[in-house]
Structures are given as C-alpha cells and as structure tokens.
Design goal:
two-stranded parallel sheet, mainly alpha, 3 helices, single chain
C-alpha cells in the first residue's frame, strides 16, 4: 500500500513472514473454526498467491523503498504490535 495507495505516507511498515510460518498460522485459524486443511495445501496456496501478487503488473506486492521491513516469522501478534508501536512512538 505504501508504493501505490499511500506513497507519501510519512511512516511505512512492510510486514513479512516465511510462507511456512504463514501456512502454520492459517492452519491454526482454520483448525479453531473446525476446518481440517493440511498445512502442505495451505503452503502451496500461499506460495502461489505470493508469486501472483509479486508478479502482477499493476501494484505488485513489494515494500516501498522507504518502508521499515519487519520479518514476523518468529513473532506473535502481540510482539508485532509492540514492535510497530515502538517504531511509531520511540521512548
């Protein structure tokens, strides 16, 4: 969004995580909803979507040149929020 929708935003954060971590997170969400989907299936879907999103001509998925990139692979939701807030409001 920082490259097309909000190119002049004063603060840009690009959150990323490994495809495996995202598949595991999605698996937990679906499992909590009573759905039984294999992690391998979710991983394939995520990798295909990533390739599609990064390769499209209009607004490809990529970090803005001036974005702060945060790899959330090993972070909980709470840790991600804490990290972003610490960047927005340094102590």
């Amino acid at each position: 969004m920082g490259t097309v929708v909000f190119p002049e935003a004063p603060f840009k954060v690009f959150l990323t995580a490994s495809a495996q971590a995202r598949a595991e997170r999605r698996h937990q969400q679906l499992k909590a909803q009573g759905e039984d989907v294999k992690i391998a299936t979710l991983l394939q879907e995520i990798e295909a979507r990533d390739a599609r999103d990064m390769g499209r001509k209009a607004a490809p998925l990529k970090a803005a040149d001036d974005a702060i990139i945060i790899d959330t692979t090993e972070f909980s939701i709470e840790q991600v929020l804490e990290k972003v807030l610490s960047l927005v409001h340094p102590q």
